[in-house]
Amino acid sequence: MALYAELHRHLGGSVVPRVLWRYLQRNESDLIDRFTHYPEFEDFYTRPRNTLDEYLELHTLVEGVQTADALPYFIYRLMRGAYIFENLAYLELRYTPFLRTDPTLTQSERIDQMAQIVDIVGKASQLKEYPIVSSQILCMHSRLPYEVNRALVDLAAQSRDYVCGIDLAGGDAHYAERLDEFVELYAYARSLDLNTTGHLYETTDGHYPDLLPYLMRIGHGIQIPLHHPHLLKEVARRQQCLEVCPTTYLKTGTLQDIRQLKQVFNLCFEAGVDIAICTDNAGLNDVRLPFEYETLLTQDVIGFEELQACQDAAFRHAFAWRYAQRPASLLNRILMTDATAS
Prior knowledge:
This protein has one domain: TIM Barrel. It is α/β, with parallel strands linked by helices. The relative contact order is 0.13. Helix content is 47%, strand content 13%. The chain is built from 15 helices and eight strands.
């Protein structure tokens, strides 16, 4: 069995349509009243959108459902699918805990409740029957107040048993007006020795070079090789890894053809910049990690050697993977030992 690492998966976008539909049915949610049958819901949930902002609106639908009581239901099914269908050995789940708190509470009370959400997600992710090394990345959000984002960074520093890093999400077109604020928050996070990634250079609106020095990985980053290749030298020098999520760019209208990624991979390989192939929103995108691999291969975006390099890079840049090698190497060693013994 090949065992993979997934570095960029959103908790909100990871819910498979059928799982969400069944949950909404069982809880008599009015969210599905406009859909007569499941195929209509699945089409609405997974169809391509025109822009990233339109695509991200679907997250709000799921975030409202992923309450403290419901999170174990969704996470159990997420982990089961990741283990059985995707052969994942390592998974980082990212989300904004504030958006899973009780909206009837005050902002201060919701900030306090974020620790409970992190604890619920952490415990629900530890499943003996589906042994995956997993950790959380907490997402600051472009549409949340400074006080909430600052508290989120503090929570990440206080929750290292469950949390391996922080992120900035909410659509990269919305950072500009608060750029100094986000630079300050990332500098603060690094002062706390937190691992950092961030949604940058996903779209042509995501050009924020002032944030790059604070990141250990770059969420997406495809516009760097496509439109700002002069930055690749610095990205390589900092040993930053791009988290490339192929299907997302088709779903958001960012790219028109998956083969446009060939330039991304080629220029990054030439510059010595690592890429980890990821799914981003496996449920919204109706895709699993092995399918992303297969699509890139069959569309001649990369070859098998490049794929293996990306798989190796994913483990090398994983924030909570504590081993020097990826699982396949460990299995090879066991097999060689058994062969020698025989």
